[in-house]
Amino acid sequence: MKKYTKIIALLTVMVFVLSAALTGCSGIKTSENTSSQGQTEQKKEPVELVVWSHLTDPEIAKVQEIANKWAEQTGNKVKVLADYSDFQAFSTAAQSGKGPDIMFGLPHDNLGTFQKAGLLAEVPEGVINKDDYVPMSINAVSYDGKMYAIPISMETYALFYNTEKVKTPPATLDDLIKLGKEVGFQYDVNNFYFSFAFISAYGGYVFKDTGGGLDPNDIGLNNDGAKKGLELIKDFVTKYKFMPADINGDMAKGNFQSGKIGLYISGPWDVDGFKQANVPFKVAPLPQVEGKPMPSFAGVQAAFVSANSKHQQEAWDLMKYLAENTGLPLFETGSRIPVLNSLLNTDEVKNNEILSAFAEQAKNAIPMPNIPQMAAVWTPAGNALQLITSGKVQVDKAADDMVNQIKQGIETQQ
């Protein structure tokens, strides 16, 4: 009996020990599962991204629609809101934690000011492949050799021609002058944005592109090429008398729309108005000068992630999705010219005769300088053009005075 009692006691102890061991193992396993599950839940915890956009309301609605698809796939939320604020308002909101995670559709020439204020997050590797884009658009969103935004679309100006007056658009500058004498040629001649094309055609430039950025200390608006271009612009008014010295954009546009002139330089923003007015027109790239394309100024609609966003990873993931999926919808909704080479080669773009002409011109365009010093250029340049076209000041003096005034303006920014 004692023997059996000892055996039972021994078995009881063994069962107790084994149970304790199993309970311990089970406890550890449960703890691991809980920890792992907690980590998984943490990774999947949804965030809400806020996007501010400077695009039109129909375009914003389209971006929201596309962003919703990303949200469905990732479990996150996105709000795309219209934004009409200026730089200071964005800066204040961003630094107070009330700004957006993403700014979508901002003109690229604002980037230098935003970057200088520390508001831009640098684009991480792998978000886009630069080779997929029109090179000009990559330059437009780069600052000191680094990318701080992603190009979304591009715009520039080109040559409108009345198809009842002009059967074949001018291919060269000589053709433009010859046709201009016959059918009339006008544009906003004292606007530096448009006249820059004739200055750059001979080698003029605003700030020297060093390959790693723009040098604000090297201004090329009074070199020999720039002065040659300014003489040509003067001739448009004083020699060929294509337009009066006091012409503005509305006057030139009205004269083209009414059929008084057959040639007119402007951008895609005038297309819908001419269509509604039943103007018989087409668009062609600017004519070549000395066998080379004429480089116009280009604008790029850009998107960036705020350096103050608390959801950088999710924001860049959304940005990548939008960059890959908004090109054609914005082309169809807002006539925005794509910056992806693959989209430029689609039938939708190629078959649009008017916008494809702007796209062709944009490939040879120069992005407006995106550094803060550009703010010191517009007024002196516009004043110089007015003095030149009115015949009040000779080109050499006007160009030199313009550059001196730009340099003085830059010094006041320091």
TrEMBL record:
Assigned protein family: Belongs to the bacterial solute-binding protein 1 family.
Domain of life: Bacteria
Gene3D superfamilies in the cross-refs: Periplasmic binding protein-like II
Primary residence: membrane
Annotated GO CC locations: ATP-binding cassette (ABC) transporter complex, substrate-binding subunit-containing
An example molecular function term from Gene Ontology annotations: carbohydrate transmembrane transporter activity
A GO biological process held by the record: maltodextrin transmembrane transport
InterPro entries: Maltose/Cyclodextrin-bd (IPR006060), SBP (IPR006059)
Name this protein carries in UniProt: Maltodextrin-binding protein
Pfam family, one: SBP_bac_8
Membrane topology: Lipid-anchor
Compartments, record wording: Cell membrane
N-terminal signal peptide: 1-20
UniProt xrefs under SUPFAM superfamilies: Periplasmic binding protein-like II
Keywords, ordered alphabetically: Cell membrane, Lipoprotein, Membrane, Signal, Sugar transport, Transport
Entries under PROSITE patterns matching the protein: PROKAR_LIPOPROTEIN
